Amino acid sequence: DEEDVLAWRERFKANVKRLAKQKLQIADPIGMDGVPQYYLSYHGRNDAKINARISRGFRKMAPSVSFVAPHTRGYSPPPPGKKIRIGFVSYYFREHSVIKMTLGMFKALDYSKFEVVIFHIGHVDAKTKMLEQYAGKLVTLGGINFRAMQQKIADEKLDVVVYAEIGMDPHSYALAHGRLAPMQLAMHGHASTSGIDSIDYYVTYDFFSEPDAQSHYSEKLIELEGLTPLTLYYDVVPFQLPQHMRDKKGVKEWRRRFGIPTDKTVYACTQTLFKVSHELDYVVQQILDGDERGVVLLKELPMTDQVGKLVIARMRKTLTQDHFRRIVFLPPLSDQDYTNMYGAVDVVLDSFPFGGHTSTMDALSIGKPVVTLPTRFMSGRCTQGFYEVMGLQSLVASSVDEYVAIALRVGMDKAYRKGLR
Q1: CA dihedral defined by 192, 44, 54, 22, rounded to 10 degrees?
Q2: Does the global pTM surpass 0.85?
Q3: Distance of CA 409 to the CA centre of its chain
């Protein structure tokens, strides 16, 4: 519950303070098993101070991260007429939500003004290769040590470095502590401030803006007007249901494959399981109590994921056995089955306090209604931002009970649901 979340956050903060007083050394900055504060962002709190404290401690324990590229000293901006050299860095320039957030931006860039170098750290797939058409140079940083990564980026003598996300992957997190370009930005691939003092700006969209937004970031906040770069992704990679998923027979066949009743109303939360907060346990309970024909669909992470196991264990305690029998956990899906899923469900439930972004884009692109409850932070305001652009507010709730009421209306009133499309 809420009290438990706050207690664990205070415990985490106390441990960070304790570690800062110890003389610890991190030999390999990219050898961490993830980024320490990754799951904090899913609490829906202001993490600016704690993330900054973690960054200061990390810099102290791993001094090699504070590398400064020689060309940044005494830097002069490019003269008029010369292209600005801009580098984009990510571990996730592959089949991942991050590329959905960035591919449209590459398409929208004015290449008469920018010379683009893309640095990809993770494994290469078809989505990675799509970026070749937008990059003057595509540099793979995988398989080399941290010092070599720093040097490869520094050798490009960039004017600007853009991290597609900071806080999800140890490579980008460690690199961001250096000064590899005179101007360094983080994009909203991870919806939380980096807390890193060498990142100058955090870039998001004005439709996702939250109250007192600047106080949630260690970086200077830049809010882009509109959402056009995001939606351009679908010009490059259309998200469309195959024809057989547009009729009842195809939907029933897909449901049978995954053990989903063919004659029930399906309320689906399509987020990764660790986004299913304790508040959503109440939502699930109320929906199943309010719609006797309803079932809830959740995505199951691979069984090795400890956080997913904890979420399922929590739900077994907070829900009755009857409720739990009416929850279907989907296994990891292929790309095509993920797409088909949206054709097989009736209502999409946005998670909160950390909501959907690219999953909402996918659902809305095929006309599937998404019920949302915005929070005070950008991580919980993306879906309502899309609806603001669309001029549709009837699926945006102001309380948990209203969220449940909206979901039940959409689920139980077929005519209303059809009209929303």
Answers
A1: -170
A2: yes
A3: 28
Nearest to 166 by CA among 234, 226, 219, 236: 219
Long-range contacts of 75-81 (CB under 8 A, 24+ apart): 75/182, 77/159, 78/159
CA distances 130 to 93, 95, 233, 325, 398, Å, are 10, 11, 11, 43, 40
Tokens of 101: 């957030």
Query: What six digits make up the tokens of 331?
Result: 């296994």
Q: What does the angle CA 36 – CA 142 – CA 52 come to, to the nearest 5 degrees? A: 25
Side chain identity, residue 318: T
Give me the residues paired with residue 296 across strands.
267, 327
Backbone angles phi, psi at 152, to 5 degrees: -60, -40
In tens, the pLDDT along 356-401 reads: 999 999 999 999 999 999 999 999 999 999 999 999 999 999 999 9
- Those residues whose C-beta lies under 8 Å from the C-beta of residue 285, and which sit 6 or more positions away, are 318, 319, 323
Centroid of chain to Cα 18 = 30
Rounded-to-integer distance, Cα 154 and Cα 11, Å:
39
Q: Which of 390, 327, 340 is nearest to 364 (CA)?
A: 390
Whole-angstrom distance, CA of residue 120 vs CA of residue 106: 14
**What is 121-176 written as a DSSP string?**
-S---HHHHHGGGT-SEEEE-TTS-HHHHHHHHHHT--SEEEES-SSS-HHHHHHT
CA distance 118 to 161: 10
DSSP 216-267: G-SSEEEEESSSHHHHTHHHHS-----GGGGSHHHHHHHHHHTT--TTSEEE
What stretches in the chain show pLDDT beneath 50? none
pLDDT tens-place string over residues 310-351: 899 999 999 999 999 999 999 989 999 999 999 999 999 999
Cα–Cα distance between 84 and 114 in angstroms, integer? 5
Beta strands in 293-363 (DSSP E): 294-299, 327-330, 347-349
In the chain, count H helices and then E strands.
17, 12
Q: How far is CA 223 from the centre of its chain?
A: 17
Element (H, E) at 388: helix 382-390
d(CA 22, CA 25): 9
Q: Both tokens of residue 222? A: 């830049």
Question: Which tokens in the block code for residue 128?
Answer: 């990675």
